[in-house]
Structure formats: C-alpha cells, structure tokens
Design a protein that fits this description.
3-methyladenine DNA Glycosylase, Chain A; 8 strands; about 30% strand
Amino acid sequence: MRSISQADISTVPLARAFYERDTVRVARELLGTILVRTNGHTVLRGVIVETEAYRGEGDPASHAYRGPTKRNAVMFGPAGHAYVYFTYGMHYCLNVTTEPTGNPGAVLIRAAQPTSAIEQMKKRRRTDQLRDLANGPAKLTQAFAVSRSLNGHDLTLGKKLFIVKGDSVEPLDIASTSRIGIRVGLEKPWRFFIRENPFVSKQ
C-alpha cells in the first residue's frame, strides 16, 4: 500500500488564487497538500489523501444547490475559507470554499494521513490505530480539533487552520469515484483519492 511522505514542511499557506478555480480541479490538486491545525502549543499536520468536490447550481448533492441560506452562506463568499457544518447530529465536516465570490463551490476534506502531533490525535480519537485517526471526514475533524467555531475561517492567513504545499501527486496515482454518502449526483465522479494509500476512507 502506498503512503505519502512529508519531505518538505512548508509554513506558507496556499494563496487565495489556488482556491479561486474550478472546484473539481481544486479537489484533485488538494491531494498531497498538508492540512495544518495549530491548537495551543500543538501543531497537528496531515497529508490530504481524499477529497470530494461540490458545486452549486447543477449539483443536487451540494448544500448550495437551492441557493444561499444561513447554513451555506460561506460557500457563496470568497474562496479559501473553511466551511464547517454539523451533520447527523454528532459530527463536523471540513470543507474549503472554491470559485469566485458568488459562485458557490466547496471541497470536502475526506481523509488525511497524520504526520505530526499523532499522540494528541490518538487522545482526541481515543484510539491507538494510526490508520483510523483521520480516514473519514468526521474522524478527521475530531483528530484535528475542527469545530463549528472555524466556520468561515480564512485559510490563507496561515493561522489556526490552513493548508500548505506538499509533495506533488502524479496523475496516475489519483483515482476517482462517485461521492460517498449521498443519494443524488451519484453520476458525477467527483471523489478523488490517492491510489492504495492506507489512510483513504474507502479504496
């Protein structure tokens, strides 16, 4: 099984221009980047290994499909912000907003390969299983201490929560499937993951 190394730890957050592009393209190119969460004196990091793209109009699986609401307002704002929502009455999910302002789009961060502060993640997740720390959107937010308080947070500031450049992932190492946990929009192959990476939620 193929895992990803963290050869060069960057501290420069991805610029807004990275996010202000087609949502599907951003979802693919987020693979291999590094999610960073500063929590007090602890810095949690993990390589993003699985994502899902959600557009607005034309994508019935998107929260923005029926237009702006109080819940999805962040999706209609500037790109490069965290869109965090509560689901199933118990879990948070982390998304990053994409596309120019007014054109809703978001990428769900489904899974990450932990690379630092792993012991703290284990305590938060109450498990010693490394592969089980962030191999799913709800597990990821728990491991990385992401809650509703970060909804709307600007990822380009390089504070609290942000994403930095990581190792590039070759196109042949990227697989795509239908998105998971939805009932509509299944024809769109907008879930992307690194092939054979053991930290992906489902191969």
